[in-house]
From TrEMBL:
Protein name: Precorrin-6A synthase (Deacetylating)
Pathway: Cofactor biosynthesis; adenosylcobalamin biosynthesis
Pfam families, sorted: Acetyltransf_3, TP_methylase
Domain (N-acetyltransferase) ranges: 292-457
Length: 459
């Protein structure tokens, strides 16, 4: 009957790297619960078994119960909210499956153990799942003790292998996932450690930050361990090649890397012009009127920007008549969150509230004297004529006046671009005048601009 649950960090799979405390804990466990993943690779299962074989005395009886891991569904393509819900549902299914094992323990089986790869505190759900199991037992009147034994994590081993500290003197370290890196990266973060990155996301930073130092490591702690170090732009192709070859050989890869700004000290956070920052993009609350939804533009939105830019209407009213390339769209969208954090430009995606499909883009730029925001927008052809622009403008302008120090919003369009002016007026903007020869045309001539304004409403 259950009396104790132990969460034991076993490092990167080499029995030599299991701490003495963890080794002693292993020898107290009656039943190990092990998740059997559908896509599990044999090397990891074998590494876990090798740890048990090496460290649990031969006369110590224990059993291993394999529990088929509930399916979690693909993470790629999910937004943060859907990703979070997917993970929570998956946890709940795991708790249920493990509870069944605990309920079926024999009388003499009192200690249950979970073997956790690396350190249980880092990107691992076992502690949360054990908390739920302990709570469930308490609700049934069974008091269960539990503890967590630390292990050597992938970042700790990466730093040791490269013979570097993870941080510079007095500076921060930011640990994140590949999924978040591109939108999140900023020189002010200090050193950045990236885990759970199936796509080598740092490749997207090469254009903007070629001089970053990359400390990369895969299969750390195993005989296949491989390390690469160098200037990001110089070594990215080598890392790509090593990853591809290793993945083909093993069928899987686990890698971790550190990105470090070269030189002595990290840049101060959000270096750049001293505009008041826009509210933190990470705490964005859904903005919708039921027909359109507006949210910050992120790296995943490049197809919307491409579709909005490359059509006859947009090219006709644009400045140079040149279509946007996919690389440019990817670069611009990848920069969007960083620009937002610098406080200069807030870029948004206009989405169809029903389907979630990207319908257009909108931006607010701080320009000219303090307190002025200039608005630009465009809707992809399939969504034109449905009032999306004025709806999105209304939502964003309301947000700007509620959450920033901007006092006056301005926008303009070329004389003749009637649809743009109508959308502005529907959103409450007032036509102000005509600015002669202000906007360039693709043929080298210049057009007059019709200008509009919207003032912060009186409090
Ligand atoms: C689910 S997380 C588990 C992290 C683990 N709890 C730790 O403390 O490192 C899996 C991620 O850890 C990193 N990782 C785990 N084992 C690794 C290894 N042997 N070499 C390099 N990175 C590894 C990879 O970034 C991988 O995507």
């Amino acid at each position: 009957m259950i009396g104790r649950i132990r969460v034991i960090g076993i490092g990167m799979g080499d029995p030599d790297q299991v701490t003495g405390e963890a080794a002693r804990a292993l020898a107290t466990v009656d039943v190990f619960i092990v998740a059997r993943k559908a896509d599990a690779h044999g090397d990891l299962v074998a590494a876990r078994q090798a740890v048990c074989d090496a460290l649990i005395p031969a006369d110590r009886a224990y059993r291993v119960v394999e529990v088929t891991d509930p399916r979690r569904g693909p993470d790629a393509g999910r937004d943060t909210a859907a990703y979070g819900k997917g993970v929570r549902d998956w946890h709940a299914a795991r708790v249920k499956a493990y509870a069944e094992v605990i309920d079926g323990l024999a009388e003499h089986e009192t200690t249950v153990g979970f073997l956790v790869w690396g350190d249980p505190a880092l990107y691992d759900s076992t502690i949360r799942i054990v908390d739920a199991l302990v709570e469930r037992c308490a609700m049934q009147g069974r008091m269960v003790d539990h503890d967590v034994i630390a292990g050597i994590s992938a970042p700790a081993l990466l730093a040791a292998r490269h013979r570097i500290p993870l941080n510079r003197i007095g500076a921060p370290v930011h640990i994140t996932t590949g999924r978040r890196l591109v939108d999140e990266f900023d020189l002010g973060l200090g050193d950045v450690v990236v885990m759970l990155d199936g796509h080598l996301s740092c490749a997207s930073l090469v254009d903007s930050f070629p001089d970053l130092e990359l400390y990369w490591g895969a299969y750390l702690g195993s005989v296949d361990e491989v390390l690469v170090h160098g200037r990001l732009a110089d070594v990215i192709e080598e890392v790509r090649r090593v990853r591809t070859e290793a993945r083909a050989r093993h069928g899987w890869i686990m890698d971790t890397y550190l990105l470090r700004q070269p030189g002595d000290a990290p840049a101060p956070a959000h270096a750049g012009p001293s505009f008041m920052a826009f509210p933190d993009v990470a705490s964005w609350e859904p903005l919708t009127d039921g027909v359109v939804t507006v949210r910050p533009l992120t790296a995943a939105d490049w197809p919307v920007l491409l579709a909005e830019s490359n059509n006859d209407e947009s090219l006709k009213w644009g400045f140079d008549g040149r279509p946007l390339t996919e690389a440019e769209a990817r670069h611009k969208t990848a920069e969007a969150v960083r620009e937002w954090r610098r406080g200069r430009v807030a870029r948004f995606v206009i989405a169809d509230a029903d389907s979630g499909a990207g319908a257009g883009v909108l931006m607010v730029i701080r320009m000219g004297p303090p307190g002025i925001g200039v608005v630009g927008y465009g809707v992809v052809p399939d969504f034109r004529g449905r009032g999306f622009t004025s709806r999105a403008l209304t939502l964003v302008c309301g947000w700007v006046f509620a959450h920033t120090d901007i006092q006056r919003l301005e926008l303009g369009h070329k004389v003749g671009n009637v649809a743009s002016g109508k959308a502005a007026e529907r959103a409450g903007f007032t036509r102000e005048g005509v600015l002669v020869g202000r906007l360039p045309n693709p043929d080298g001539t210049r057009s007059d601009e019709v200008s509009y304004f919207l003032l912060r409403p009186e409090a």
